[in-house]
Structures are given as structure tokens and as C-alpha cells.
Amino acid sequence: MDKCIACGACTEKCPKKVTDHFNAGLAKRKAIYVDYPQAVPLKYAIDPETCIYIVKNGRCGVCQKVCPTDAIDFDQTDKTINIKVGSVIMAPGFSTFDPSGLDNYQYSQYPNVVTSMEMERILSATGPFNGHLIRPSDDKEPKKVAWLQCIGSRDINKCDNSYCSSVCCMYAIKEAVIAKEHSGGKLDTAIFYMDMRTYGKEFEGYYERAKNEQKVRFIRSRIHTIEEDRETNNLILKYVDDQGKILTEIFDMVVLSVGMQTPKDVVDLADRLDIKLNDNKFVETDSFNPVSTSRPGIFVCGSFQEPKDIPMAVMEASAAACDAQTILSGARNSLTKEKTFPKERDVSDQEPRIGVFVCNCGTNIGGIVDVPSVAEMAKTLPDVVYVEENLFTCSQDTQEKLIEVIEKNNLNRIVVAACTPRTHEALFQETLKEAGLNKYLFEMANIRNQCSWVHSKEKDEATKKAKILVQMAISRARRIKPLKQPTISIDSNALVIGGGIAGMTAALGLADQGFHTSIVEKSNQLGGAALKLDSTWLGEDIGQNLKKMIRKVNNNSLIDVYTDSIIKNASGFIGNFETTITKSEAESEKEINIKHGAIIVTVGATEYQPSEYLHGQDEMIFTHLAFDMALKTNDKKIASANSAVFIQCVGSRETDRPYCSKVCCTHSIKSAIKLRNLDPEKDVYIIYRDIRTYGQRESLYKEARDKGVIFIRYDVENKPKVEKSGENLKVTIKDHVLNRNLEIDTDIIVLASAIIPGDNQDLAKMFKLSLTQDNFFNEAHAKLRPVEFATEGIFMAGMAHYPKPIEESIAQAKAAASRAAVALSKDSLTVEGIVSFIDTSMCRGCGECEKACPFNAIILEETDETGESKIAYVQAALCKGCGACSVACPTGAASIHNYDDEIVLTMIESALEV
Length: 914
Hints:
There is one protein chain. By secondary structure, the chain is an alpha/beta fold. The chain folds into 6 domains: 9-82, no CATH class; 95-261, 3-Layer(bba) Sandwich (FAD/NAD(P)-binding domain), CATH 3.50.50; 354-477, Rossmann fold (3-Layer(aba) Sandwich), CATH 3.40.50; 494-606 and 757-828, FAD/NAD(P)-binding domain (3-Layer(bba) Sandwich), CATH 3.50.50; 609-755, FAD/NAD(P)-binding domain; 836-913, Alpha-Beta Plaits (2-Layer Sandwich). The chain is built from 24 helices and 44 strands.
């Protein structure tokens, strides 16, 4: 494995072709292969079930003969490895539903009926068709493509998967949009669905853009059967529209949006580990312990717990890590090893001695770029004292040789002309450190991605461009200087802003690992919005669980609770924050300064108070929270009512609030079931736009229908009307099936009102945090960093991020605690050297750089007692080297180490010389 340099010579010569399962069977691969594009580590593997050498006892072995680094060893055998651990996290993933057995869709018979996973590979640039949208039967570009939803999900007739697979609606919309982009917008796309479940953060906006801007058609109908035109292989769909008309459409392709399910081998694994699964074969968890399995010490995350999208899976992974960290916190750092490097040589006073290494990368670069001529050109440039061509510069052997060459030739600058620095810069920088050089005395020219790959049919131009890039790299290397990476101490205390369920969970997650944590809560008690809730969708008593949680927090000696408190101001950076809070006490206020190394924002959200539907004008019209309080207190108005109407999307999915509030459908259905359980004779109606009981919540939807709850759909152009009718209330709604208005006399109306963010502007400005257009806090990366802000050391959880149910708030809070603990568990942090700096002789203290900095890294410091004279100062721990300050500075005082104007202009001038 260490010897493999991923040159591809082995797979090029391998004679055995087999089905490529990664590409969903749409292409072939060799018996020796890379498992998937951009695999990390990028190493080749041999498929023992198809390899001729293994299957036929040594009759081939050509890969071993052509491997330039002797990386292939057929003598290796399987080994059993025993690992002693203190905790286990299960993340085995899922399999997609196989529609081959559904005779009504003819997936296995009609070549142009594909699964959504196959469509993913068709559209992928690394897929079997290089991203070109073509249909399998004849390799022609389709003009019309249909997506059929809920294949293998929400279905107990054709399969046993009664649950919703949660992700299918969004990936179908994404595929339809991307397919249109790949066809230049000419493609006609249609999605056939029952309920459009775009409930996640900014999902609804994506749905609306697909519908209104991309012109993706959304047809509310479930297709029963697909027929094929045998001459053209086109596919015929018959369906009934909203008006009850039977329509027929012909499509070039049909995509089956298949759902998630637990693989059989994973079910067997759970049985061996004595992990309890539910009826859907997912791990059984509860709302207040969303990543804990039935066996202590074993945790679960991802789709083995329930179908979910990437952000939620990533959150749960960190949440599971948090619970594992809690168990193992006593052993933290007991097995860690620190890598040591030789003492760094001081070359600051030496003239540049540049070594240039030009990589062939097998034929990856050398097959297009004339590498010898690039190397010869490099030899002619000033301060270049050593030039070498390498077959594979990134290989372990070459790295070791590079250290020898640096020491033998007394090199103090290194330029590598190879592939992208995004994947290899850190490797070469570490090699420099092992040779005793400062890691910033390195520059890389990307002659693979930017030359051989993009100009593969223009070899001369690719070579010329490679020479330009190398000359630019050498000109920069000539002027770069060693940079320091200062270390900063870490304050191991944490601050949690908000004392709801998410805030308390985060505080307990940190305190249980030994980190002192302060909770700042603006109200006079802990609990937040959960104080008004009755039960979870699984029926767990929220009040009782909340009391336990509050008791745990108050009894934990490592948690300080500040109620009736607000944040007044804050300063600092990761590991070294200082926050001032104002605490109200009786008729006075007290300021308290808290020093801490990390912050978790869990300020929650509030319930929209509607002005529509006569809310506030009649005591029998409730919002969700008010109705839950009435249920909790056994309000007689509820018991005596003979009928109830729930109206969905009140204040959500509107122009002012275009997002879905995520929890409302589940909440209404749960409450409707409770009413029917109280009195089966009660008439209960739910008036909805789309029922969004995602995941296993679908069981509630089925239960409600079985218990006689009546569901009536409306669209945004025909909202229900609420009027007073004597002592009762009257709801008028147009029924799309009957195509006429229905009048419902009712005793109670419950409005599923939107969840809206609090006034987050002040907090966002104070900590330099970004907000979405809807005023929720914005994460650093929606999928890869869903609990982190762009500002390091600050994290988020709960409804400050977006509306979500209790179990997701708890999982996200645990995830935030896990991420914060990574920083808090260290004694110090190393700061990157390529950051901004201020030339104080040129700074006039105007503050433009401070305003421009998106990371709050620049502050103005007073230079005299009057406070009139100021100068800018860069907090290196916060700076990301983006250069915004340099652009904004009117005097040129702000710049970036090793990227100042002189260096950049020199690179430009050198490019023009070639």
C-alpha cells in the first residue's frame, strides 16, 4: 500500500474486465482498480474474486510486471486483527431498494428505466459517460425524462418498507435540475410524487427555484405501470391529474427514485452484537438518546439509525463521537504519539538556492507535457541550483530522496511541478520539515490539472503553459521567507448561549468530558420552548425528560448557569474568548466576565403568532404550543369538543417565510391521533399542502388514517377560510377531488404556525457570524461542517440553526460539544503562518480593514492616551489569509505574508517573459 503511487499502469495492462458496481453496473472496470474516483488514500486494489492470477493460480500477473514501484504482492493473505476498544460506533450505511422484482415498472426488462443511483452515475463527470446525459438503450440524448417517487418507500403492497426514505424528493429535484443543465436547458423533466418532502434547511427554496426558474414539472400522481414502445424503447406513462383527467405521456427515460433500507449483512451484524432493531430493521433509539443503542457503549449514526441526508448523518457521527468521548475521557491522550522533526535551519540570511522537481506522474503529465524541456528551462532561471525529473514525485521513495538532495545541495527553497497543491502540498511541506527547512519555503506548480488534463489535445500549448507556471513558481520561491507558526494557549472552559434542550445537552456533553461550561439563558429558567411541549412523536413524555435534564445540569459541579442574562460584548478567538454578560438580579444588573476557549450558540427559535384565521379573536383557535399546553393541563375545552380542524403551513412556505418549519406535520398528526384516542367519535380533520412525515414518522400518518383522521389537501392559491358560525367555527376549503368547496363546522381549530428565529442580528454582529436570509444562523458548510461557523471555535445547535424536532436538536448539540471538545482538549493550537499583517508605518487607523474582515481578525488599537490615534492589529489566530483587508486598505498597509504586492507582481511579470 505504501509503495503504490496510483500511476495506473497496472489497470491499463490488466486483461480482465468485470462489472463496475460503483458505476451501478453501467460500465466495466478492471480486476485491479481504484474503488472510486478521488479515493483517499488514492491506492489501487485487486478484486480477488475476478483476478486471473488469484483465480487461476498464477496464470497472469501482468500488473506485477508493469508496476514501476513493486507495489503488488500476491503473497499477502487475509489477517484477523483483534482491537481492544472502550466504545464502538456503528456507521455501516445502507443499501438502495432493488426494484427488479416490481413487474409493474419493468426495471430489469426496459433498458431506459433506471434507478436514481444509476442516474447519479450517468450525470457524474467521473461516471461511465463522463457526465453526458445519454440513455442506455441507444446512447442518444433524451428529450424527456420522468422521475417516479417512493419506489421501495411508503409501500406495504410491493415491499415491506412502510417508512419514508427522507432523501428521495430532494435528490430527484437535484437530478432533474442537473440533467437540465447538462442538456443546455432543453430537457423536459417531470417528477411524479405523492407529497413533496423538502423539509430541510433551504430545501423549500431549492424546490421553488426548480419549479419556477428551471421549469421542472411536478405532477402529484403515483404511476402504477410503465409500458414500452418496442420500436423506439420510449416509455409510456398513464396518470390521473389533479382534475381527475386520465393523461398519457411518452418519455425517453424513467428514473425510479429508490429508497434506503438496511442491508441483510448489517442486520446480521446487529444480531451478533446484540443490538436491538425496530420493525423497519433500523437501530432502535429514543428521542433523548438519539445515538445510543440498546447495548451500553455502542452508538449508532447515519442511515443505520434511520434514513437521513448527509448533514444529519454528519451531525450524528459527531454526536456518537461525543458519547464515546464521554466514556473514554479519562483515557484521553494516553495513547497519542507526537511526531518529531529535526531542528529548523535558519536560512533567512542566505541567498536563495532553489531546487526544482518536475514530475512525469507516469504518463499522467509526461504523456502530454514535454517534461524534459520544462526541466531544461528551469535550469536556466536565476537562483535555481538543482533540477530533477521524477517519475512520481509524491512516492515515498522520492520523498526520502528529496530529503537527501536538500541536505546534499544545501537547498533552501523547493519548487515541485506536479499536480494540485490541494491534495499534495501538505505532503511536501512535511518533507521539508523532515529536511530541516521551514515548511513555507515551498511552492507548487500545478502542471497536471492546469496543463495536461485541460489541454490533453494541445500538447505544445500544454508544455508552454507548464513552463509559464514553473517560471512563476520559481519567481515566487525566490522571494518567499520562512514564516513562524505561533502557538496559542487554550482555555479549556466553554460557553453555551441558550438554555433550552440543545443548550443543556451541549453543556452536559462538555461537562461529562471534564470541561467547565457556562450556560447563559435570557429567561428566568432553563428549558426553552420544550417547556410548552407535551410529547415526542414516539410518545415520550417531554416534561418528565426535561425535568431530569434540568436536574442534571443544576447538579453538575462543572456547569454554571446564568439565567436572566444576556451577552453584552465579546472578544477574542478560538481558545481565548472573553465574554461579558449582564445578569438581572432583583432591581439591579451585574456584569460578569467569562473567559473560555469555545462557544456553542443554541439560542433557539420562537412560534409565529398568526394574524390570519381569526387567531386571537376566539379562544377555541390554538397554535401548536398553546394546544400542547391545553393537552398537558387537561383543559376542559379540549375534552368537550366534538370536532377539530388542523390547518398546516400557517406562516410557513409563504413569501415572508419561504421555508418549511419541518416539525408541523408530525406535530399535527400526533395531536390528531391523541384526540381520536381521547374520543373515537371526535371528527378530526387535517388540512394540508404536503404531508411531511419523513423517515419513520410515516407510521404516524398511517395510524392517523387508520383511526379515521380525514386529510384534505389545499394549494397556496386556495387557502382555507375560517369564519365564526354562531357559537361554532366554520372552515371552508376546496376539495381537489370533488372540485367543490367543503364547509366544516368545528369546535376547535389548531394552527400549525411557523417556527421563526429570534432577533439574532446583535449576536451575529458581536461574534461575526453569518445569517441566512431567513435569519437563522449559517453553518460553515451545509454538508461537511453542519455544526460549525466559519469563525473557528464557535459552534451551533438546535433551532438557532433551523427548525427541527427534539432528537435532532439533541444530536446536533452533542455534535457541537464533540467538535468543541477537539479544541478544548488541547493545551495549545498552532496558528497558520500565511496570514495578514499590517505595516504600521503606513497604517493611518481608518478601520477599513476591520470592516472588510469577514473573520473579525482585525482590531484597532489606541496608540495614545487621547484615543484619537489608532492602528490596526491582526489577530493571527482568527485570520484565514483571504486578503480582504489588503483590498480594502487605502494606503497599502495591509498585506499577506509571502503574498505581498511585490511577490504577486513579480509572478505576473515572469509569466509575460516566457
